[in-house]
Amino acid sequence: MGGMLVPFAGAGTAGAAPAPRPGAPRSDATTESHTVTLVTGDVVRYVDGPGDRDTVTVDRPDGASGGVRIQQAGDDVYVLPDEATTLIAAGTLDRRLFNVSALVRMGYDDEGTGAIPVIATYPPARAKALPATPRGAQKVRTLASIHGAALSADKDGARTFWDAITRTPSARSLDSGIAKLWLDGRSEALLADSVPQVRAPEAWAAGFDGKGTKVAVLDTGIDADHPDVKDRLVGARSFVPGEEVDDKHGHGTHVASTIAGSGAGSDGANKGVAPAAALLVGKVLSDEGSGADSGIIEAMEWAKAEGADIVSMSLGSPVPDDGTDPMSQAVNSLSADGGPLFVIAAGNAYGAGTIGSPGSAEQALTVAAVDKRDGRGFADYLYDLVDRHDGTIPDRSLAFAPSTRRLAKVENTFYGHKKTLGAGYRYDIPDYGPGLGFEEYEQFPDVRTEWVNPLPGDSFWYENHSVLDAEESDRAHEMRSAELDYRAGKGYRAEWFAPVTRPRLGTGYWGPFRTVDNDLQFNITPWTDAGAGHSGSMPENEYDTTSYAFYQGDTQLKKGAGRAGYIGDLSAEKRPYRLVIDSARDAKTWKTSTRTRSEWGFVSGALDEAGPYRADIPLLQLDYAVDTDLAGDVRAGRTTEIGLTSGTQEWLPGAVKANKASLSVSYDDGKHWTKVDLRKKKTGEWTAKLRTPSKGATSVSLKAHAQGPGGLVVDQQIIRAFGLK
């Protein structure tokens, strides 16, 4: 048996090992030495020395022909026998089988295992009855989804196995019926850096709690006695040799409870995203957190056979992949023909080409970890593109790069008086069902250009943005858009969190209505910005900061905390009613609109029982227009113009405009008010011009009144509506 010593200091360099210089200091750095037997029977001794003084020794097996090449790609060292290079180039032999560094990391060196784990895939025509296992190997498991089998080639007989599958020297294909031979690699548990905000409470409120859905979790197993999951478990199996399903690592139980935990362990405080879903658990990762690819594939097949609707895999290969490896093939195969949806972690690396298998599969729903410093708010340009192929499978490239003539240009402006972390997303809502998306982190204030393509039919875009709280864990101030429709070649402007923030209705939430049962419900969004069609709330603490009172004439019928309420047993006769909303927020945190009081007057009577069960209640809304900077300020001591508009909800049929209005301003937080002159335009809007004080004031407060036909009236006070600088 011959041998060779190859010292190297870079990619593919070879030569004699340099002798130490006389008097050179001795290095105390440690070295690591590993012996790795390759599938060709070559035995590699790899010494990871200090600095660039690494060495590779290769002992060639009897009968080997040609030489051996050493290559280095990044931190990985490849030992490539000439016998294998033609097969690798032909795509029939997995190059990872010769990545000595990766084999060591996976525990496949000779100290870690006495066999070489491989996966053999076969042509579909031969997969129904697999050929006999080649000499020198044993079959571990059949993998029907990829027309293959996991094999274990004994290292002592590795050359026997190699000779059995390569009987023809220099051939571009393998023998024994094998189409391709892969390394049976090892995947690892992946835990996201932060839990994405998926708005689960809103989904639960809409009735989407996972009931009737079976989710398979393929991970490190399950603690079947954990109170959050014990009543959700409907099946479990281990695919790790020598280990039971019991989770001694913890990752699998964490993932399972995040998906379908009942919250029993926290008195309901920490429920999973789908707390009514049924759980299947496949242990595919060992108690140390890694597992063989072939075992994962077998578990994927089991999950489909057990009727899983969704397969969750928070795992992946540490080696980036192009989506053609056996695990990715299994995802694509098992997803076909109504198979389960595979939701797979992308991994915690960032950048192009960092997604490993099986998240790289074409049919996988691959979910990336989101760090709190990643997101949309850090880009000057953003593209939101949707390329739909309704009722057909495209037979061309899916690359979609439309010219700007086919897109709408949106100038999106985000206001804020200090640097703040936010979150947001633009959702495409198809005409056949709900949209899908995950909010991404943004930075406010910000101005960015966005390119959006028009959507077909009744589909529309919907946008949502939030200012996060001090802990950056929840929405402190959320703003929702109306339905958005864009036209190619057109320009649009949108403003978020711009003054003046006040109670204002929008279509992002349901509004006030009366029913034939003579009861009334209302839901007033108290923190809506100046953006057209927006509706805003502060969901984290509205019951602490907002209250309502409801009157019939001067008689109070009900009062309570929050922005929504119900009033029953109303008179069938037409009567005048008043709804009062008071809201306040911390002046140290929020520069503007620190306190508001709004009062709506309207007339309402019984509905016709022969008509619809419920009818929306028109209320006058107040809109203000003031040109501030991104911090919400205007110049002190200068003339400022304020626009005022009032009308009922513009989306309701028969919307009307106010016919009378007044406006007052205050520079001392509402202690003293000064009425300003309003000029009415032909369009029905009013404008006022005022000169702000040059000293002694830091903000402008507003008090507005408007009246309309049919007893409609609105009064509104906004303390610190906008700032002075």
UniProtKB/TrEMBL annotation:
InterPro entries: Peptidase_S8/S53_dom, Peptidase_S8/S53_dom_sf, Peptidase_S8/S53_subtilisin, Peptidase_S8_Asp-AS, Peptidase_S8_His-AS, Peptidase_S8_subtilisin-rel. Residues 210-381 form the Peptidase S8/S53 domain. Residues 12-33, 242-267 are annotated as: Disordered. The keyword RNA-binding does not apply. SUPFAM superfamilies: Subtilisin-like. It comes from the Bacteria. Belongs to the peptidase S8 family. This is Peptidase S8/S53 domain-containing protein. The lineage of its organism: Bacteria, Bacillati, Actinomycetota, Actinomycetes, Kitasatosporales.
